[in-house]
UniProtKB/TrEMBL annotation:
It comes from the Bacteria. Belongs to the short-chain dehydrogenases/reductases (SDR) family. This is Short-chain dehydrogenase/reductase SDR. The keyword rRNA processing does not apply. Keywords: Oxidoreductase. It comes from Octadecabacter arcticus 238. One of its GO terms (molecular function) is oxidoreductase activity. The keyword Oxidoreductase applies. GO terms for cellular component: membrane. The lineage of its organism: Bacteria, Pseudomonadati, Pseudomonadota, Alphaproteobacteria, Rhodobacterales. InterPro entries: NAD(P)-bd_dom_sf, SDR_fam. SUPFAM superfamilies: NAD(P)-binding Rossmann-fold domains. Pfam families: adh_short (PF00106).
Length: 250
């Protein structure tokens, strides 16, 4: 979160996500205004009511579908009408199993839209509004899966890699205009997305991820691995020579 004393607004993209809900609860407690953007209005209404009970200045549910760019402009307009500091946190993403994608290659398009191109296009539209105010933060949630293409989920990984590269360039651009961009790379988190996958290594919770995000925002970090152990783990995984890596099933 930015540390300016002005009125804070957070656009929360993918507000029905488990991690987004934990994030919404955390910013609600600070009295910010939250714009809850997602596909399921019933769920967004419930989150808005919960945020109001926790002390938000206001909570506005609004439709956002990463695959329908026509839903983007109304959110930008709503955000632009708010005074003070604008911030945006992106939690949108989908992870069909690699087996499902192998059986239906059309799932590639949706996976890339949900986790990369939809959010990137939205942020591209939002960027001028934030630049004009010379403040605010963007939190983009990628994944450790984007650090190297693995046999088990390389389409999702490719989408997250694309999004992380996009965020790196956006940071380079917006950093010159006073806007902070934080790339978050979680390992496995106990959420709807990981239901049915069984126990995963270094599994964490949505609340722990959100606490790490706020810590990274305070320190104006560029990239956050959460849990922290994923930074050395992924550093090693990225160093494995390709002739060896291509035979591994990690
Ligand atoms: N859980 C993990 O282990 C893990 C690890 C690394 C990174 N991440 C990332 O963390 C973020 C949050 O995920 P989560 O773990 O909280 O899982 P989640 O509860 O399944 O959240 C995924 C969110 O993405 C939304 N979404 C998917 N496609 C969309 C579309 N076309 N338009 C709008 N919204 C769409 C879903 O909306 P609906 O509710 O409408 O389906 C849901 O709100 C995702 O970007 C995910 O890739 C998660």
């Amino acid at each position: 979160m930015t540390d300016t004393p002005t009125h804070q607004t957070w656009i929360i993209l993918g507000a029905s996500s488990t991690i987004a809900k934990a994030f919404t609860r955390s910013v609600a407690a600070t009295g910010a205004h939250v714009i809850l953007a997602g596909r399921r209005m019933d769920d967004l209404n419930a989150s808005a009511a919960d945020a109001k009970a926790r002390g938000v200045a206001d909570a506005t549910p609004i439709i956002f579908d990463a695959r329908i760019p026509d839903t983007f402009q109304a959110i930008i307009d709503l955000a632009a009408a708010q005074s003070g500091t604008l911030n945006c946190a992106v939690f949108v993403g989908s992870m069909p199993t690699q087996d499902a994608i192998d059986a239906d290659p059309a799932l590639v398009d949706g996976t890339i839209s949900d986790s990369f191109t939809g959010p990137a296009r939205f942020l591209q539209m939002l960027a001028p509004v934030m630049m004009a105010r010379s403040c605010g933060s963007i939190v983009g949630v990628g994944s450790v899966a984007g650090d190297r293409g693995r046999v088990g989920n390389y389409v999702y990984g490719a989408a997250k890699a694309g999004f992380a590269t996009y965020l790196s360039g956006l940071r380079n651009h917006l950093g010159r205009h006073g806007v902070h961009v934080l790339t978050v790379k979680p390992g496995p988190v106990d959420t709807a997305m990981t239901q049915g996958l069984g126990q995963q290594p270094f599994m964490t919770t949505a609340d722990a991820v959100v606490a790490d995000i706020h810590n990274a925002l305070r320190k104006k970090r560029n990239t956050l691995y959460t849990r922290w152990i994923w930074w050395p783990v992924m550093t090693i995984i990225k160093l494995i020579p390709e002739p060896i890596f291509k035979k591994m099933s990690i």
